[in-house]
Amino acid sequence: MIILQTEQLTKQFGKLIAVNHVDISVQRGEIFGLLGPNGAGKTTMLKMFTTLLSPSFGTVKISGFDIVKQPNKVRQIIGYVPQMLSADGTLTGYENLLIFAKIYDLPAKTREKRIWELLELMNLKDSANFLVRTYSGGMIRRLEIAQSLLHQPHILFLDEPTVGLDPIARQTVWDRIIHLSKEYDLTIILTTHYMEEAENLCTHLAIMHLGKVVAQGTQKELKKSAGDPDMSMDKVFSHYAGAEIEIGGNIHGLREISETRQTARRLG
Ligand SMILES: Nc1ncnc2c1ncn2[C@@H]1O[C@H](COP(=O)(O)OP(=O)(O)OP(=O)(O)O)[C@@H](O)[C@H]1O
Ligand SMILES: [Mg+2]
């Protein structure tokens, strides 16, 4: 069953076409990754999916609801963890969740139960009453995921869920994402510029380059269509995203710069 479908989705900022006539479809239950370097248009796509930006052209339907014509219906069934920090460091984990529960208008009767369920689900129960500024990067990300799930969405959008995290913290976030996908019938759409994340986490991928989706499918399908079933995902990526990315350096250099920048911004 298709849960998200775009047709010719386009977003233009002045002369720049940040998202360029994109057609993708996501089936229920997938962990779908938008993989692309900095500036590829990943966040812009997610902002349209989550009704924060309206398309310049084209359509997006989520569970059959049109994001422009039925934004409120869409908001009720989606959760979103933005690229930038969305938890308050001066409050405890529990207090952050309580604020979101009130924003989502969860009934006072069930609020407490739901908050503690999510703290447990994200392995944060023991740290619930500590200030978030004492949390590690992985704990903050897990708290932000808990915040986005309070209203029981069917589909969860994660923008760069593990950027700037060390390998162990990254693993704790991946582990929870996989758990949510398997046990809670949640469809997950995430952006990443980590090849490792795409390989280990995503059941399906769309490779983005300069606003366009240049290939999509399972890893197996992508390797096959790139001409070699044994190809590494790095090779698949450069096959589709073209030589431009590699000119004058390499993707890893770009990744590192962006990571440092984003970590600095996130944890202040
Ligand atoms: N509000 C805006 N106004 C003008 N240009 C924008 C705006 N938002 C994004 N852009 C531009 O659109 C392009 C795509 O940006 P976007 O943030 O979607 O990329 P991204 O793939 O998420 O990159 P990153 O990996 O750095 O997060 C970039 O060139 C960016 O500078
Ligand atoms: Mg982005």
Describe this structure in words.
This protein has two domains: 1-68 and 174-268, P-loop containing nucleotide triphosphate hydrolases (Rossmann fold), CATH 3.40.50.300; 78-152, no CATH class. It has ten helices and eleven strands. It has helices at residues 42-49, 71-77, 93-103, 108-121, 137-149, 167-183, 195-201, 219-225, 233-241, 251-267; strands at 2-13, 16-22, 25-27, 31-35, 57-62, 65-66, 78-81, 155-159, 187-192, 204-209, 212-217. The strands form two sheets. A six-stranded mixed sheet has the order 7-8-9-4-10-11, sandwiched between helices. Strands 1, 2, 3, 5 and 6 form a five-stranded antiparallel sheet that branches. α6 (167-183) links the parallel β8 and β9 (187-192). α3 packs parallel to α5 (137-149) and α4 (108-121) runs antiparallel to α5 (137-149). The longest helix has 17 residues, at 167-183. It starts with a strand and ends with a helix. Bound molecules: adenosine-5'-triphosphate (ATP) and magnesium ion.
Which cofactor or ligand species appear?
Answer: adenosine-5'-triphosphate, magnesium ion
Strand runs, count: 11
What does the largest sheet look like? 6 strands, mixed
The proportion of strand residues reads 15-25%
What is the helical fraction, as a range of percent? 40-55%
The CATH homologous superfamily name of the largest domain equals P-loop containing nucleotide triphosphate hydrolases
Radius of gyration from the alpha-carbon trace, in angstroms:
18 Å
- Strand arrangement within the widest β-sheet reads 7-8-9-4-10-11
The shape is: globular
CATH topology of the largest domain: Rossmann fold
The figure for the number of domains is 2
Structural class: alpha/beta
The termini sit apart by: 42 Å
Question: What is the CATH first-level class name of the largest domain?
Answer: Alpha Beta
Can you write the helix and strand succession as a string? EEEEHEEHEHHHEHEHEEHHH
Mean residue pLDDT = 90
Uncertain runs: 243-261
Number of helices: 10
